Amino acid sequence: MEKKDTRSTIIKIGTDLISRQGFNATGIDAILKEAGIPKGSFYHYFRSKEEFGLAVIDRFAERFEQRLTTFLNDGGETPLNRIRHFLEDSLARVTQNQCTRGCLIGNLGQEMADLNERFRERLESIFQIWRERFAACLHEAQQRGELPGSIDPNVAAGFILSGWEGAILRSKVMKSPGPMRDFIEVLFATTLQ
Amino acid sequence: MEKKDTRSTIIKIGTDLISRQGFNATGIDAILKEAGIPKGSFYHYFRSKEEFGLAVIDRFAERFEQRLTTFLNDGGETPLNRIRHFLEDSLARVTQNQCTRGCLIGNLGQEMADLNERFRERLESIFQIWRERFAACLHEAQQRGELPGSIDPNVAAGFILSGWEGAILRSKVMKSPGPMRDFIEVLFATTLQ
């Protein structure tokens, strides 16, 4: 394998393990073992476990960004329907994973925000980007008359993001997609009405 | 110290450490050291680290239940104002802690739901109790005409709980009470309008 491919494999396997058990509980040796890469070669690819963790976050954020673009820039749908379809797609993914894992960014925020400032800053900026994406969609909904102008798109976008992260957490704890489904239902019946 | 007092001290210090760094990263030795209790005496008080963790959860839930009763059973306030005052009191507490720690039940749900079934069940039942307390309050709000009858109190209570857990998480990541404040504002301006 090329160096770049090996690095990418380590990140991929690391993402999976960190999603399941958290960052601190994920040992470098376990990742290398699952990747079939010789023990001790980790520092050939990453300067530290912290750098590796940040690379995992960046890869996740990039892929998530692509998903957001697919849904929220879908010109064939009204802005509110784009948000709804995105949330429903996430619900389907979580259901397929038997409500395990949760959201990697939410998980790491919970685990790492008080422990590592570099992680916290990176996670904050990702939440910020997500919020801006939702806010832009809500703003467009107002311009088209799909949503009343009385609501501040930035504040409402933060509200959606908070509710969605909490719903994913509750679905993980209950091992049921119910909280995520309820969130979508109430959101569109009240806040985005 | 009496045996009961010592056990209670270990739980109190454990709660603080687990709130700050999670369950798996909190070593028994560190708790005993901070409590000034001889190393090795832990198993005199708890059968296992798991039993200790469950005792920490139970103590937190008991105290939280008292807070919920103080606010949600306050007959001098309308049902919706009781919920608002409870959320504002939580916001003030999180602000006082510089937005560290987050919610112990949410944190442990994130960390432990996929790793330990006994923890998961305990956390699920606590979320369930909280949801029922909010639902009872919303039901009373409907009976008094403070809230339209069109919304299902159980579904709306789950929505509030999800949103609140997510807002606490986002406040922890942003080190700002903003997400919690925004959540209260949007909740009462839209969902509970």
**What is the 3D form of chain A?**
elongated
Element order, helices and strands of chain A?
HHHHHHHHH
Name given to the CATH homologous superfamily of the largest domain in chain A: Tetracycline Repressor, domain 2
Round the Cα radius of gyration of chain A to an integer and report it.
Answer: 18 Å
**What is the class of the largest domain in chain A in the CATH system?**
Mainly Alpha
Largest interface: A-B, 49 and 49 residues
Taken as a percent bin, the fraction of beta residues of chain A is: under 5%
CATH architecture of the largest domain in chain A: Orthogonal Bundle
For this entry, what is the oligomeric state of its chains? homodimer
Give me the count of strands of chain A: 0
Please summarize the sheet with the most strands of chain A.
none
CATH topology of the largest domain in chain A: Tetracycline Repressor, domain 2
Whole-number average pLDDT of chain A?
96
Total count of helical runs of at least 4 residues of chain A: 9
The percent of residues in helical segments of chain A reads: over 70%
- The count of domains of chain A is 2
Q: Note poorly predicted spans of chain A.
A: none
- Class by SSE composition of chain A: mainly alpha
State the separation between the terminal residues of chain A, measured CA to CA.
53 Å
